[in-house]
Design goal:
Blueprint (H helix, E strand, L loop, with lengths): L1 E5 L2 E9 L5 E9 L18 H4 L18 H7 L16 H14 L21 H4 L19 H14 L13 H15 L3 H13 L7 H15 L6 H16 L5 H20 L8 H9 L3 E6 L5 E6 L5 H20 L1 H5 L9
Antiparallel strand pairs: 1-2, 2-3, 4-5
Helix pairs in contact: 5-6, 5-7, 7-9, 8-10, 9-10
Length: 356
């Protein structure tokens, strides 16, 4: 009996002799059913996106030893603390398809390493995992990080290119930082791509959080966190991505070795996420003045006129809702009347602020 093993199938050739001395091959073929790497813990199978498994119209076949397929038990043991929130989202990420497409892209460019790891083992036996996929990289991505509608995959690739440009990364591997006007223009384009599409909002936050992990360049890292803060102020991710993102940002805020500037941006991001999740995404793209004010740390002011010909000046930013403005107005009116009646405060030129 001769056994010949091929990839994905086994063919058993049984050779028997008949009375005439002829050789009659008797073939029985058993085909191994591929197990979906994104099977959930309850045994149900989550279909993968066709757009991700077939990149540029052809299937890339490579050695499976390059990849470690996602498994909740394995992930819980191997992922660092800041990625613990990603464990319930295994079915949302298309790890194997992304890594295969990325490997193909890098091989065609003649490169070897494409993820910014903290430590890289021997090149011969290195394994690429979910943790690698969620690490900073300078190269464009060939497909989305999440399983999204096939019609949106090309847009997700374009979004990542804009993120790289905002961070100052171009094809020449040089950091080229943009002017304030160029940054605002690029941010507006990103809003046009993501604001009204929930799938692309989730994809954006997955991409930008990826660019904040193991980023070796401080100025580049700050720009990534700047984007995270800006967009978390106006459009929240979905509940599951939001839970992962909040846990990840919280770990960065609490990190002992976190850069002080990054820590401030991460804390602002965490607070903005809480507000935007409660308020929901904005209906319109933020105005240029709002974007600029958030980037430079400036508060905007506006004047509210009342029917009795009085007015109040209030401050606001990109995260301010109508409900927030009404509360501030009510507080200012109450505090103003109290100060007017209390002459001691007026004589001493003391200011009574809301909440005091």
């Amino acid at each position: 009996m001769l056994i010949k093993i091929k990839r994905r199938r086994k063919i058993l050739l049984g050779i028997c002799w008949n009375d005439m001395g002829d050789i009659l091959p008797k073939t029985s073929e058993s085909v191994r059913m591929d197990q979906n790497p994104f099977s959930s813990s309850n045994g149900t199978t989550v279909p993968s996106q066709n757009s991700a498994s077939n990149v540029d119209g052809d299937v890339y076949d490579c050695d499976d030893s390059y990849f470690v397929l996602p498994n909740s038990n394995r992930l819980s043991m191997s992922l660092p603390a800041e990625l613990a929130g990603a464990i319930p989202l295994i079915d949302r990420f298309q790890v194997e398809n992304f890594l295969r497409a990325m490997q193909k892209q890098i091989n065609s460019a003649g490169k070897r390493v494409f993820f910014s790891r903290k430590s890289i083992g021997p090149a011969v036996n290195e394994k690429f995992t979910l943790e690698d996929m969620l690490c900073f990289q300078k190269d464009p991505i060939p497909t989305s990080l999440l399983k999204i509608n096939s019609d949106l995959v090309s847009r997700s690739v374009k979004i990542f290119q804009m993120i790289l440009k905002y961070m100052g990364i171009d094809s020449s591997d040089k950091l080229t930082f943009l002017s304030l006007d160029e940054r605002i223009e690029l941010i507006t384009k990103l809003y046009k791509q993501t604001l009204k599409r929930s799938e692309l909002r989730d994809e954006f936050f997955a991409q930008i959080s990826k660019q904040t992990r193991n980023n070796p360049d401080r100025s580049c890292l700050v720009k990534a966190w700047e984007l995270m803060y800006l967009f978390s102020s106006s459009m929240p991710p979905s509940m599951d991505i939001g839970a992962y993102l909040s846990e990840y940002v919280h770990n960065v805020v609490q990190g002992v070795k976190t850069d002080p500037e990054v820590q401030i941006l991460a804390l602002n991001t965490l607070n903005s996420l809480k507000r935007s999740v409660k308020a929901g995404p904005r209906l319109t793209i933020p105005a240029r003045e709002e974007i600029e004010a958030l980037l430079i740390g400036k508060k905007l002011t506006t004047i509210v006129f009342f029917l009795d010909e009085t007015f109040e000046e209030i401050t606001y930013d990109m995260t301010t809702t109508v409900g927030d403005a009404v509360q501030v107005l009510a507080c200012n009116i109450i505090c103003g009347r109290y100060c007017f009646r209390n002459t001691d405060y007026i004589k001493n030129k003391k200011t009574l602020r809301c909440g005091e």
